[in-house]
Design goal:
By secondary structure, the chain is of the alpha+beta class. The protein has helices spanning 33-40, 44-50, 66-70, 80-96, 152-164, 196-202, 224-227, 232-258, 273-277, 279-283, 301-314, 327-383, and strands at residues 54-60, 101-112, 115-118, 131-134, 138-141, 147-148, 168-169, 177-178, 181-193, 206-217, 287-293, 401-405, 410-414. Helix 4 (80-96) runs antiparallel to helix 5 (152-164). It is elongated, with a radius of gyration of 46 Å. Mean pLDDT is 82; it is low at 401-411.
Length: 428
């Protein structure tokens, strides 16, 4: 309150997890690692098998539990990535039982001081790798080691090997602070045989789907005055904050583009190595999610508000994710979906037409019944004897006066009612 903070601030999110073991709010349960994984990654493995690129980013202040959320510990405390590996291998076993050919490779890199290093190479701290951009496949890291795996044990050993080689340092806020952005990537490729009908009709025998799964553990943003960074750690913190700031600018530009804001600028992907490598995941062909970790302590209120604004802004970004598969097979599927949609529309119209016909039929029946009723009444009126009253005879006319005109020697009949003057006849 002394700094002018409002008592209440609202930020839109898809879900909020309480991970502090002590004193949860009333009616709120503590979120375990298993619950966190199911909430964040319920569709991650399924989308990978469907041919979609996926990405999960962990962002937050240093010391708030990003690495614990992503990697975790042993047993029930294992994090999102190990649990995702377990589900992935389990799904692979079931799919291979359906005669699907599946191949997988894993890579692990870190972005340290704006340079890319291979965490699975023979010399992890050797020369940095070059980042290139292919006109078709997009951004890639040149000479990055891709290790194939078939089982869970091999995949977890690859993850442990790369995590052990990552740059870390001790600060006042975190005894094991990550000083680099780590990107663990699984490249997935599956091939399945198409039905015989499609093979005959379209001449395509199999469908190959490829996808990438990026699991990103971002280095934490930090205030140098609080972390006590000096020398090398100060330079590391500077580069970390600059790359996260660039990521925030990219997210702001993508939000403006999604909202069709007038004058929206192109995202500055190339201003940072992090945004350049993740350009397709952040604003392209990918289903991307973000988990933001915050500190409940009042001393971190500024960093907490920045993290909440950052994550709520990222929620407004709209990506266009498509399946990475054979274009012919994709077109066939799209046409079938359109056909099913038209069938549903025709069924709806047919149902409405049937209902209208039934209503019309009932109206016709009602009109016929009314017509029969009127006809019966008319026939009854015709056959019955008419009730006619006898009329009185008209009155006889009054005797008319005869006027003899001597001069004309004619007889004229005069109506006394219409004559204005009467002539009195004499006896002679």
């Amino acid at each position: 309150p002394n700094k002018g903070y409002k008592t209440e601030k609202l930020y839109p999110f898809d879900g909020v997890l309480w991970s502090v073991d002590e004193d949860p709010p009333q009616g709120v349960a503590v979120a375990s690692q298993e619950f966190t994984y199911k909430t964040l990654c319920s569709d991650l493995v399924g989308n990978t098998f469907k041919g979609y690129n996926n990405c999960l980013l962990a962002y937050g202040q240093t010391g708030t539990g990003k690495t614990y959320t992503m990697i975790g510990g042993k047993g029930e405390s294992r994090g999102v990535i190990p649990r995702m590996c377990e589900d992935l291998i389990s799904k692979v076993v079931s799919e291979r039982a359906k005669q699907s050919a599946i191949s997988m490779t894993a890579s692990y890199m870190e972005i340290y001081m704006e340079k890319v290093y291979d965490l699975l190479g023979k010399d992890s701290y050797g020369s940095s790798l070059r980042v290139r951009q292919h006109p078709t496949s997009g951004v890639f890291v040149e000479n990055l080691v891709q290790k194939p795996f078939e089982d869970l044990e091999t995949l977890l050993s690859i993850l442990q090997e790369g995590s052990a080689s990552r740059h870390t340092a001790e600060t006042k806020m975190n005894t094991n602070s990550s000083r680099s952005h780590a990107i663990f990537t699984i490249n997935f490729c599956s091939t399945e045989e198409l039905p015989e009908v499609d093979q005959v009709l379209y001449g395509v025998h199999e469908n190959t789907k490829t996808s990438k799964l990026h699991l990103v553990d971002l280095a934490g943003s930090e205030v140098v005055a609080k972390s006590g960074a000096e020398g090398v750690t100060f330079a590391e913190a500077t580069n970390i904050n600059l790359s996260l700031t660039t990521l925030g600018r990219v997210i702001d530009s993508l939000c403006d583009i999604s909202r069709k804001v007038k004058g929206a600028q192109a995202p500055p992907y190339r201003d940072s190595m992090l945004t350049f490598i993740l350009s397709d995941s952040v604003g392209g062909n990918s289903k991307t999610s973000m988990v933001a970790t915050i500190s409940p302590h009042c001393s971190s209120i500024d960093e907490t508000l920045n993290t909440l604004r950052y994550a709520s802004r990222a929620r407004d970004v709209v990506n266009n994710a498509v399946t990475n598969e054979d274009p012919t097979v994709r077109r066939i599927r799209e046409l079938r979906e359109d056909n099913e949609k038209l069938k549903r529309q025709m069924n709806t119209i047919r149902e409405k037409t049937t209902l209208a016909a039934e209503d019309m039929k009932s109206d016709i029946i009602n009109l016929k019944s009314e017509n029969e009723l009127l006809k019966a009444r008319s026939e009854k009126a015709t056959t019955s004897k008419p009730n006619i009253k006898k009329l009185k005879a008209p009155p006889k006319p009054e005797p008319k006066l005869v006027s003899c005109l001597k001069s004309a020697s004619k007889v004229q009949v005069v109506d006394p009612q219409s004559s204005k003057e009467l002539v009195k006849l004499k006896d002679d």
